Amino acid sequence: GGPHARIVCEIALAQSTNVWNLKCENWMSEQYVRCVFGIKIHSVRHLGRQVHRSMTARLWTRVRPPPPAVSVAVPGLLGVFSQTWDFGTLEYNSDQATACTAVNNPLYQVSTPVADVFWNPPLTAAGVPNEVGYIVAVPGTLTANNFVIDLYNIQQLIMKWT
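Above: the chain's sequence. Below: its structure in token form.
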């Protein structure tokens, strides 16, 4: 077989939340996809003279994140979990500000294992990954265990072009 995506990112602006969510979950129905990181950018809102946006980030993964992360099993996708962040300048469907107000806030950081990029077990004739006895080979030159995405940085980039 040919190469396959292991980590997928879906960003939705014009799509509805339901369409975005379904698209991301469809990616997770592919056994070779280890995680999907999705961002839904909601409509611009004005409070006085200030421009705001609500933004939702969601990570779908095949490994339940350890506490204190709050993850839930995804119905219909055995072994898939999701975690959601409301990280815009305002909460979704609210005029309340979020707590995503500075970089390095662990509550607004998304962490995914570096090993997911290198996960490449052999495929069966049916195209299903054969994980029996498989060990991920991460290059020794990589020292970080996780990719960390700081949602505040993403929020600020989105607000610059809003």
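The radius of gyration is 17 Å.
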